[in-house]
Design brief:
alpha/beta; Rossmann fold; 2 domains; 11 strands; about 40% helix; about 20% strand; transferase
């Protein structure tokens, strides 16, 4: 292929099972990552550079046609303008979670006093690292049960120059904890097992089920645990922020209200779905 446009068209044409706009977005990512070609280079039909060398396009197409996420192929994804390393050990950060970041940053941007913040179930570290970068006055702790996830999160913190204290801890079995926090944030497992049949193959096959799924008989298990933790370890006036299953907005709100939180609010995401709850102790 002699030009960026001809290579782009060829790769898009080889992808199977993707919507046309999704296939184009994936190939744009590949060309930018491997050949440093921008969208404008593709549209303009820029000649393909000889350096860097081209990857094995056939192998990349094969992996994509097996529904492997493009983020796993290139090893990174963008979140809040920062480039995060990802692997099969962590969930790929979603655009909706960026809105959770904006909500928290909006509330604490003017805070000049103590701001101890904990991210429960950190995964790639995208929430903790981004908040540490955007709220430099914050002291950030991040928990995850998975040692493999914490390895990725620590790498992201080092690469992105974020000061985060990572700990392998289980929110369902906290044990002894004496610290107090001004802010608790969590994007816990909230997809019920019965919803799995409606999910995309790339998510089911390549992303960690430990971080995704919760049993149908207790879909709010982790929210109860986070709310209980907040009652024990938030200062008065401190707040919990959680990403939620759109099916359980009022029920999640009730979890916090039953535990004595006030001003419990549901926020919608960019798609108009109930996606976040904020609760003040």
């Amino acid at each position: 292929m002699s030009t960026a446009k001809s290579l782009f068209d060829s790769l898009v044409g080889q992808l199977e099972g993707y919507r046309p706009e999704e296939a184009r977005a994936i190939v744009f990512l590949l060309l930018e990552h491997y050949l440093l070609l921008r969208r404008t280079d593709v549209v303009a039909g820029k000649p393909i550079p000889t350096n860097p060398p081209q990857p094995d396009w056939a192998e990349l197409v094969r992996r994509l046609n097996s529904h492997e996420p493009v983020q796993h192929l290139i090893g990174t994804t963008e979140f809040c303008g920062l480039e995060f390393q990802v692997s099969p050990a962590v969930l790929i950060p979603r655009p909706e979670t960026e809105e959770l970041i904006r909500l928290i940053v909006r509330d604490y941007a003017e805070t000049t006093g103590q701001l101890n913040l904990i991210d429960i179930g950190t995964g790639s570290g995208c929430i903790a690292v981004t908040l540490a970068r955007f709220l430099p006055q914050a002291s950030v702790v991040a928990w995850d049960l998975s040692a493999e996830a914490l390895e990725v999160a620590r790498l992201n913190a080092r690469t992105l120059l974020a000061d985060v204290e990572f700990e392998q801890r289980d929110i369902l079995n906290v044990g002894e904890e004496n610290r107090r926090f001004e802010c608790v944030v969590s994007n816990p497992p909230y997809v019920t097992l019965s919803e799995a049949e409606h999910m995309e193959t790339n998510v089911l096959r390549y992303e960690p089920h430990l971080a995704l799924f919760v049993e149908d008989q207790d879909p709010l298990l982790f929210y109860k645990a986070v709310a209980d933790f907040g009652q024990q370890h938030l200062i008065t006036g401190g707040a919990c922020y959680v990403e939620i299953n759109e099916r359980f907005g009022p029920q999640t709100q009730q979890v916090f209200e039953e535990r004595g939180y006030h001003n419990v609010q549901i926020f919608k995401d960019i798609h108009g779905k109930e996606r976040f709850v904020k609760a003040v102790k």
